[in-house]
Amino acid sequence: MTAISINPQTYRPAYPIWCAGCGHYGVQSALQAALRRIGIPDHEVMILAGIGCSGTIQNNLGTYGYHAQHGRVLPAATGVALSNPALTVVAAGGDGDGYAIGVGHLVHAFRRSTSLAYIVMNNETYGLTKGQHSPTRAVDLPSHVEAPLDAIVLGLSIGTTSFVARGYSGWFDQLVELTVQALTHARTKQGFAFLEVISPCVTYQDSYPRWEHALYNVDADPSYDPNDRAAAFELSTRLQAEGRLPAGLIYRAAPTPILNTSDPAHSEIEPANLIDRYHEIMDGYTVRADQL
Ligand code: SF4
Ligand code: MG
User: Fold this and answer.
1) Which ligand is closest to the CA of 134, given by its number?
2) Considering 11, 161, 221, 240, which has the largest number of Cβ atoms within 10 A of its Cβ?
3) pLDDT tens-digit profile of 136-174?
4) From the CA of 57, how far away is ligand 2's center (Å)?
5) Rounded to two decimals, what is the model's pTM?
6) First-last CA distance in the chain
7) From the CB of 149, is ligand 1 less than 6 Å away?
8) Ligand 1 atom showing the smallest separation from residue 121 Cα
9) CA 146 to CA 223: how far, in whole Å?
10) Which residue, among 138, 190, 126, 188, has the nearest Cα to 164 in the 3D structure?
11) From the CA of 95, how far away is ligand 1's center (Å)?
12) Whole-angstrom distance, CA of residue 63 vs CA of residue 41
């Protein structure tokens, strides 16, 4: 194991501001443990987060960090990953941020499969704004039922998806292992690694007792093959009909050639080309005396 040194004079991680018992503590501890186990130095990691209780996670670690606009963490993370492939890029956020306002970006992140890890803390609620229903909560209305969104099934339906997993903040050892696998998938340029974590909000939607029994752990099933996309889809939809969800490494495609070769952050810049073009553009705005 390679130790990670954190220089408090350079990076000043904050203490979490989450409620006692919030599932996000488990997610953060698992992320820290995974970074340590892989041995990635702080300056080679960038954590970007969306808006919500979960979005403060990037304040709490001694890596580079960025707090994105609501629902916009994936475009920002994609830009970072493409600009500087030397970085291990981790996007993080909640189910409201990622599956409501940000869901369009999630679909295209699966499609583009840029090599970054996306950790979504799913607590079926908007915790920061005091407990409104998020897209992952089934809503039983007098006139109809609103089905919960299952982002794993969404990802499985897109051909370029290469890694989907679901952890639970109450199953810490497995969560560390899944986080290691997601970070490794992104770091070795195998594409977009999607990790949803069931991370209960003890204040507004305490789902610990329910999920403990409703999750089906595929990692404990020796007959389950995580390389079989059709089987993953079949299991997810079958459990969904029972009000349950699979957890563990649900699908991982075979390794593919390196997808991201762009590296503008480290490219040699031709100053002459840029300065000539700059003057050409600026000269276009020059106002001549006969135009006044
Ligand atoms: Fe966690 Fe809920 Fe508290 Fe937010 S309101 S910090 S999600 S327990
Ligand atoms: Mg939420």
Assistant:
1) 2
2) 161
3) 998 888 888 899 999 999 999 999 999 999 999 999 999
4) 13
5) 0.88
6) 70
7) no
8) 7
9) 33
10) 190
11) 13
12) 8
